[in-house]
Protein backbone atom coordinates (compact mmCIF):
# COMPACT_ATOMS: atom_id res chain seq x y z
CA UNK A 1 0.00 0.00 0.00
CA UNK A 2 1.29 3.44 -0.93
CA UNK A 3 2.09 5.69 2.04
CA UNK A 4 -0.32 8.54 2.84
CA UNK A 5 0.88 12.10 3.09
CA UNK A 6 0.37 13.72 6.47
CA UNK A 7 -1.71 16.89 6.06
CA UNK A 8 -0.17 18.40 9.18
CA UNK A 9 3.30 18.04 7.65
CA UNK A 10 2.06 19.57 4.40
CA UNK A 11 0.50 22.48 6.29
CA UNK A 12 3.81 23.17 8.00
CA UNK A 13 5.69 22.86 4.70
CA UNK A 14 3.40 25.43 3.04
CA UNK A 15 3.85 27.80 5.98
CA UNK A 16 7.65 27.48 5.80
CA UNK A 17 7.55 28.37 2.10
CA UNK A 18 5.26 31.37 2.68
CA UNK A 19 7.25 32.83 5.53
CA UNK A 20 10.65 31.94 4.07
CA UNK A 21 12.03 30.91 7.45
CA UNK A 22 11.57 27.99 9.85
CA UNK A 23 11.46 30.40 12.79
CA UNK A 24 8.68 32.56 11.32
CA UNK A 25 6.73 29.45 10.28
CA UNK A 26 7.01 28.11 13.83
CA UNK A 27 5.60 31.36 15.23
CA UNK A 28 2.73 31.35 12.72
CA UNK A 29 1.57 27.83 13.63
CA UNK A 30 2.42 28.09 17.33
CA UNK A 31 5.13 25.43 17.38
CA UNK A 32 8.76 25.46 18.39
CA UNK A 33 11.54 25.95 15.85
CA UNK A 34 12.80 22.44 16.64
CA UNK A 35 9.36 20.91 16.05
CA UNK A 36 9.05 22.55 12.63
CA UNK A 37 12.55 21.44 11.67
CA UNK A 38 11.71 17.88 12.70
CA UNK A 39 8.49 17.95 10.67
CA UNK A 40 10.38 19.01 7.56
CA UNK A 41 12.89 16.24 8.11
CA UNK A 42 10.11 13.67 8.46
CA UNK A 43 8.42 14.90 5.28
CA UNK A 44 11.65 14.69 3.28
CA UNK A 45 12.33 11.19 4.62
CA UNK A 46 8.81 10.05 3.74
CA UNK A 47 9.13 11.38 0.18
CA UNK A 48 12.76 10.40 -0.26
CA UNK A 49 13.50 13.81 -1.75
CA UNK A 50 15.21 17.01 -0.68
CA UNK A 51 12.51 19.70 -0.66
CA UNK A 52 14.43 22.87 0.10
CA UNK A 53 17.89 24.34 0.41
CA UNK A 54 18.61 26.64 3.35
CA UNK A 55 21.09 29.49 3.42
CA UNK A 56 21.64 32.83 5.13
CA UNK A 57 19.38 34.38 2.50
CA UNK A 58 16.46 32.11 3.37
CA UNK A 59 14.90 29.05 1.79
CA UNK A 60 15.00 27.96 -1.85
CA UNK A 61 12.73 25.17 -3.07
CA UNK A 62 14.16 22.29 -5.06
CA UNK A 63 12.26 21.00 -8.08
CA UNK A 64 10.70 18.35 -5.83
CA UNK A 65 9.75 21.09 -3.37
CA UNK A 66 8.06 23.17 -6.09
CA UNK A 67 6.06 20.14 -7.22
CA UNK A 68 5.00 19.30 -3.68
CA UNK A 69 4.00 22.90 -2.94
CA UNK A 70 1.47 22.91 -5.77
CA UNK A 71 -0.11 19.66 -4.60
CA UNK A 72 0.05 20.64 -0.93
CA UNK A 73 -2.02 23.76 -1.47
CA UNK A 74 -4.63 21.70 -3.35
CA UNK A 75 -4.70 19.04 -0.60
CA UNK A 76 -5.21 21.66 2.10
CA UNK A 77 -7.97 23.40 0.17
CA UNK A 78 -9.76 20.08 -0.39
CA UNK A 79 -9.38 19.29 3.30
CA UNK A 80 -10.95 22.63 4.23
CA UNK A 81 -13.72 22.14 1.68
CA UNK A 82 -14.56 18.70 3.08
CA UNK A 83 -14.67 19.99 6.65
CA UNK A 84 -16.82 22.92 5.57
CA UNK A 85 -19.28 20.67 3.73
CA UNK A 86 -19.59 18.28 6.66
CA UNK A 87 -19.99 21.10 9.15
CA UNK A 88 -23.15 22.25 7.33
CA UNK A 89 -24.18 25.59 8.86
CA UNK A 90 -21.58 26.00 11.58
CA UNK A 91 -17.96 26.70 10.84
CA UNK A 92 -15.55 25.96 13.63
CA UNK A 93 -11.89 26.45 14.36
CA UNK A 94 -9.70 29.52 14.65
CA UNK A 95 -9.33 32.31 12.11
CA UNK A 96 -6.91 35.18 12.48
CA UNK A 97 -8.29 38.58 11.49
CA UNK A 98 -6.18 41.66 10.82
CA UNK A 99 -7.91 44.95 11.57
CA UNK A 100 -6.62 48.49 10.90
CA UNK A 101 -5.85 50.17 14.22
CA UNK A 102 -8.14 53.11 13.53
CA UNK A 103 -11.10 50.83 12.79
CA UNK A 104 -10.69 48.45 15.75
CA UNK A 105 -13.67 49.93 17.61
CA UNK A 106 -15.93 49.63 14.55
CA UNK A 107 -14.85 46.02 14.08
CA UNK A 108 -15.64 45.15 17.70
CA UNK A 109 -18.94 47.07 17.72
CA UNK A 110 -20.30 46.06 14.31
CA UNK A 111 -18.40 43.08 12.88
CA UNK A 112 -17.89 40.85 15.91
CA UNK A 113 -21.61 40.68 16.90
CA UNK A 114 -22.49 39.49 13.38
CA UNK A 115 -19.68 36.93 13.33
CA UNK A 116 -20.67 35.67 16.79
CA UNK A 117 -24.32 35.34 15.80
CA UNK A 118 -23.81 33.78 12.38
CA UNK A 119 -20.76 31.63 13.20
CA UNK A 120 -20.94 30.85 16.93
CA UNK A 121 -18.34 28.08 16.77
CA UNK A 122 -15.74 30.20 15.05
CA UNK A 123 -12.89 31.35 17.27
CA UNK A 124 -11.64 34.73 16.09
CA UNK A 125 -8.13 35.94 16.88
CA UNK A 126 -7.82 39.66 16.18
CA UNK A 127 -4.62 41.55 15.40
CA UNK A 128 -4.65 45.36 15.12
CA UNK A 129 -2.04 47.09 12.99
CA UNK A 130 -1.63 49.48 10.07
CA UNK A 131 -3.05 48.30 6.74
CA UNK A 132 0.36 48.06 5.09
CA UNK A 133 1.68 45.99 7.99
CA UNK A 134 -1.40 43.76 7.83
CA UNK A 135 -0.72 43.07 4.16
CA UNK A 136 2.79 41.89 5.09
CA UNK A 137 1.47 39.73 7.93
CA UNK A 138 -1.04 38.04 5.62
CA UNK A 139 1.65 37.40 3.00
CA UNK A 140 3.80 35.88 5.75
CA UNK A 141 1.02 33.50 6.74
CA UNK A 142 0.38 35.19 10.10
CA UNK A 143 -3.22 36.13 9.22
CA UNK A 144 -6.12 34.42 7.45
CA UNK A 145 -8.19 37.51 6.64
CA UNK A 146 -7.46 41.22 6.85
CA UNK A 147 -9.40 44.43 6.36
CA UNK A 148 -7.10 46.97 4.73
CA UNK A 149 -7.17 50.39 3.15
CA UNK A 150 -7.21 50.17 -0.64
CA UNK A 151 -4.07 51.28 -2.45
CA UNK A 152 -3.64 52.46 -6.03
CA UNK A 153 -1.88 49.24 -6.99
CA UNK A 154 -4.38 47.00 -5.18
CA UNK A 155 -6.53 44.85 -7.48
CA UNK A 156 -9.07 42.05 -7.07
CA UNK A 157 -9.87 42.98 -3.47
CA UNK A 158 -13.38 42.80 -2.04
CA UNK A 159 -14.75 46.25 -1.22
CA UNK A 160 -16.44 46.30 2.19
CA UNK A 161 -17.17 49.99 2.51
CA UNK A 162 -15.88 53.39 1.50
CA UNK A 163 -16.03 56.89 2.96
CA UNK A 164 -14.99 60.37 1.97
CA UNK A 165 -11.75 61.91 3.10
CA UNK A 166 -12.49 65.49 4.10
CA UNK A 167 -10.09 68.39 4.40
CA UNK A 168 -11.44 69.55 7.73
CA UNK A 169 -11.11 72.72 9.76
CA UNK A 170 -12.53 73.76 13.13
CA UNK A 171 -16.04 75.14 12.74
CA UNK A 172 -15.41 78.44 14.55
CA UNK A 173 -11.75 79.17 13.79
CA UNK A 174 -10.45 80.54 10.46
CA UNK A 175 -7.11 78.74 10.53
CA UNK A 176 -6.85 78.88 6.73
CA UNK A 177 -6.38 82.66 6.95
CA UNK A 178 -3.05 82.23 8.73
CA UNK A 179 0.12 82.95 6.74
CA UNK A 180 1.16 79.40 7.55
CA UNK A 181 -1.79 77.09 8.07
CA UNK A 182 -1.38 74.82 11.13
CA UNK A 183 -1.77 71.18 10.12
CA UNK A 184 -2.21 67.96 12.11
CA UNK A 185 -0.71 64.94 10.36
CA UNK A 186 -1.13 61.22 10.86
CA UNK A 187 2.27 60.05 12.05
CA UNK A 188 2.44 56.56 10.57
CA UNK A 189 3.02 54.62 7.37
CA UNK A 190 -0.45 54.71 5.85
CA UNK A 191 -2.30 55.94 2.79
CA UNK A 192 -4.10 58.74 4.69
CA UNK A 193 -0.77 60.31 5.62
CA UNK A 194 0.46 59.96 2.02
CA UNK A 195 -2.69 61.59 0.62
CA UNK A 196 -2.51 64.38 3.19
CA UNK A 197 1.05 65.34 2.30
CA UNK A 198 0.36 64.96 -1.42
CA UNK A 199 -2.72 67.18 -1.17
CA UNK A 200 -0.84 69.93 0.66
CA UNK A 201 1.90 69.84 -1.96
CA UNK A 202 -0.53 69.99 -4.91
CA UNK A 203 -2.48 72.85 -3.35
CA UNK A 204 0.77 74.77 -2.89
CA UNK A 205 -0.26 75.68 0.64
CA UNK A 206 2.15 77.30 3.06
CA UNK A 207 1.75 75.26 6.24
CA UNK A 208 3.46 74.17 9.41
CA UNK A 209 2.97 70.87 11.19
CA UNK A 210 1.77 71.55 14.73
CA UNK A 211 0.51 68.10 15.73
CA UNK A 212 1.31 64.49 14.85
CA UNK A 213 -0.05 61.22 16.18
CA UNK A 214 -0.12 57.57 15.06
CA UNK A 215 -3.82 57.51 16.05
CA UNK A 216 -6.26 59.16 13.64
CA UNK A 217 -8.75 59.90 16.42
CA UNK A 218 -6.12 62.10 18.07
CA UNK A 219 -5.60 63.96 14.81
CA UNK A 220 -9.37 64.48 14.57
CA UNK A 221 -9.43 65.81 18.13
CA UNK A 222 -6.77 68.37 17.21
CA UNK A 223 -9.12 69.64 14.50
CA UNK A 224 -12.20 69.60 16.74
CA UNK A 225 -10.30 71.55 19.41
CA UNK A 226 -9.46 74.34 16.96
CA UNK A 227 -5.75 73.56 16.89
CA UNK A 228 -5.22 72.53 13.26
CA UNK A 229 -6.68 71.44 9.94
CA UNK A 230 -6.23 67.93 8.56
CA UNK A 231 -7.38 65.33 6.04
CA UNK A 232 -9.72 62.96 7.89
CA UNK A 233 -12.18 60.12 7.24
CA UNK A 234 -15.69 61.53 7.43
CA UNK A 235 -16.71 59.02 10.12
CA UNK A 236 -14.26 60.61 12.59
CA UNK A 237 -15.70 64.10 12.34
CA UNK A 238 -18.01 65.53 15.00
CA UNK A 239 -20.96 67.57 13.63
CA UNK A 240 -20.97 71.27 14.48
CA UNK A 241 -17.32 71.16 15.47
CA UNK A 242 -15.96 70.73 11.97
CA UNK A 243 -16.40 72.21 8.51
CA UNK A 244 -15.03 71.34 5.13
CA UNK A 245 -12.34 73.66 3.83
CA UNK A 246 -13.40 75.61 0.69
CA UNK A 247 -12.39 74.06 -2.63
CA UNK A 248 -10.45 77.16 -3.63
CA UNK A 249 -8.05 76.37 -0.78
CA UNK A 250 -7.89 72.59 -1.10
CA UNK A 251 -10.22 70.00 -2.67
CA UNK A 252 -11.97 67.27 -0.66
CA UNK A 253 -12.48 64.86 -3.55
CA UNK A 254 -10.84 61.72 -2.16
CA UNK A 255 -12.43 58.43 -1.13
CA UNK A 256 -10.96 55.91 1.30
CA UNK A 257 -11.81 52.32 0.34
CA UNK A 258 -11.68 49.53 2.91
CA UNK A 259 -11.16 46.12 1.35
CA UNK A 260 -10.95 42.50 2.46
CA UNK A 261 -7.93 40.38 1.57
CA UNK A 262 -7.40 36.76 2.48
CA UNK A 263 -5.04 33.82 2.45
CA UNK A 264 -5.10 31.59 -0.64
CA UNK A 265 -5.41 28.54 1.63
CA UNK A 266 -8.90 29.46 2.86
CA UNK A 267 -11.63 27.30 1.38
CA UNK A 268 -14.05 29.10 -0.93
CA UNK A 269 -17.12 28.14 1.10
CA UNK A 270 -15.53 29.35 4.33
CA UNK A 271 -14.48 32.58 2.64
CA UNK A 272 -18.01 33.06 1.29
CA UNK A 273 -19.56 32.77 4.75
CA UNK A 274 -17.04 35.14 6.30
CA UNK A 275 -17.38 37.71 3.51
CA UNK A 276 -21.18 37.61 3.81
CA UNK A 277 -20.89 38.37 7.52
CA UNK A 278 -18.45 41.21 6.90
CA UNK A 279 -20.69 42.75 4.23
CA UNK A 280 -23.72 42.59 6.54
CA UNK A 281 -21.70 44.23 9.29
CA UNK A 282 -20.29 46.92 7.02
CA UNK A 283 -23.81 47.81 5.90
CA UNK A 284 -24.90 48.14 9.54
CA UNK A 285 -21.83 50.25 10.25
CA UNK A 286 -22.58 52.54 7.28
CA UNK A 287 -26.18 53.08 8.41
CA UNK A 288 -25.03 53.86 11.94
CA UNK A 289 -22.59 56.50 10.69
CA UNK A 290 -25.24 58.01 8.39
CA UNK A 291 -27.45 58.63 11.43
CA UNK A 292 -24.89 61.24 12.46
CA UNK A 293 -25.22 64.58 10.69
CA UNK A 294 -22.64 65.08 7.95
CA UNK A 295 -19.78 67.51 8.27
CA UNK A 296 -20.67 71.14 7.68
CA UNK A 297 -20.12 72.38 4.15
CA UNK A 298 -17.65 75.21 3.46
CA UNK A 299 -18.51 78.38 5.30
CA UNK A 300 -18.93 79.42 8.89
CA UNK A 301 -21.77 78.72 11.30
CA UNK A 302 -23.98 81.75 11.74
UniProtKB/TrEMBL annotation:
Residue ranges constituting the HTH lysR-type domain according to the UniProt record: 5-62
InterPro entries (alphabetical): LTTR (IPR050176), LysR_HTH_N (IPR000847), LysR_subst-bd (IPR005119), WH-like_DNA-bd_sf (IPR036388), WH_DNA-bd_sf (IPR036390)
UniProt protein name: DNA-binding transcriptional regulator, LysR family
Pfam families: HTH_1, LysR_substrate
PROSITE patterns listed in its UniProt record: HTH_LYSR
The keyword S-adenosyl-L-methionine belongs to this UniProt entry's keyword annotation: no
Keyword Transcription in annotation: yes
Family: Belongs to the LysR transcriptional regulatory family.
Gene Ontology MF terms: DNA binding; DNA-binding transcription factor activity
Species this protein is from: Neptunomonas qingdaonensis
Lineage: superkingdom: Bacteria
Keywords annotated in UniProt: DNA-binding, Transcription, Transcription regulation
Amino acid sequence: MDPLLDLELLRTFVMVVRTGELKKAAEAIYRSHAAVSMQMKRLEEQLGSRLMERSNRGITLTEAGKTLLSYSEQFLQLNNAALSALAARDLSGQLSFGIPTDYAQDFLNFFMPVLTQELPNLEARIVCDRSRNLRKKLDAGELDIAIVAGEAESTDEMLLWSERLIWSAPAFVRLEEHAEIPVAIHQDNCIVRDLCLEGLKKANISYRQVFASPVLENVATAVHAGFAISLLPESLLIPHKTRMLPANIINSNLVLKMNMIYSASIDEQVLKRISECLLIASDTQKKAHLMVSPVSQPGYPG
